[in-house]
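Researcher: Predict the fold of FemAB family XrtA/PEP-CTERM system-associated protein.
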Amino acid sequence: MPLPATPLAPTLTLRSVDLADPAERARIDAWVRVQPAATPFHLPAWSVAVARACGHKSHTLVAERADGSLAGMVPLTEIASPLFGRALVSNGFAVDGGILAADPAAIRVLGDGAWALAQALRCPTLELRGGPAEGPEWHRDEHTYLGFVRPLAASDEAELLAIPRKQRAEVRKSLDNDLAVEIGSGAGDRKAHYAVYAESVRNLGTPVFPAALFREVLAEFGDAADILTVRAGGAAVASVLSLYFNGTAYPYWGGGTAAARGLRANDRMYFALMAHARGRGCTRFDFGRSKAGTGPAAFKKNWGFTPQPLMYVKRAASQEMLRDINPLSPRYRAKIEMWKKLPLWAANVIGPHISKGLG
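Model: Structure tokens for FemAB family XrtA/PEP-CTERM system-associated protein follow.
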């Protein structure tokens, strides 16, 4: 449901953008790429891939100055699920997004505009995963998630020295193991990645995303995304799909099979990815978000990454109407334990239908 262009301040106008218009898409893409706070999840490519793969509607709101130049934007995904309800999320299936503003005045304009759109779409909850938000209407959470980012070292040896001693020993052991590393984005790479990732998330008790989501993200990002897979005896045991944006590598969807731990395949995978990212010209490594107090958060800290609290905000008419999809919530514990026991084939059939509603 597009919003008409609406004057909201003497210098700013809010309107919705149709990403099917090549000129509009190119304009937004170019603007996002030069914003210091931008992430790959702000790019039109992400919104288009999510909408195409999962059947959700994407909405992009922009705030423009009187001369027509962009002052800010927010990408939004309209989620509808019989299990998890309706929500307008920035951005869908992403760990970041939210309002991106070059002009401070655009923050309030875009926040209020996103809330008006949520109400028009009958979405009780509006979620912004990162970025600023102004006003007392927002419920702020800076305790649930941690982010892990640090510079890449200049060489493999320097990278090893940047890793704390205990984890460095694990990486060195992984380098001694008979493991092969492959990088690509073809059908074989996608098949191997999906098999590994699906097993990994089933073992964690969460439903896997549709294979189409990985395929569409790779197609939309082109050379700015790829898959790195670690094999032992020819079998894929660890694999990660990564994005590359503005000099930063984003290992996004990664995991390992039951055999990966003993082989130290995950250690090999991330160390190889750091070298690969360096070879691509990246200078930063974004290890992604993890929930505070969890094993994944401890794993990333062991690699020499300092955790930083992530600010997520939500808006709803009342506290009771806020959507809760945090798997650490007590309401999901029994379901997660049950999911871990599902046969892999069953989890792979049922999981994508459930996960599409998480957004």
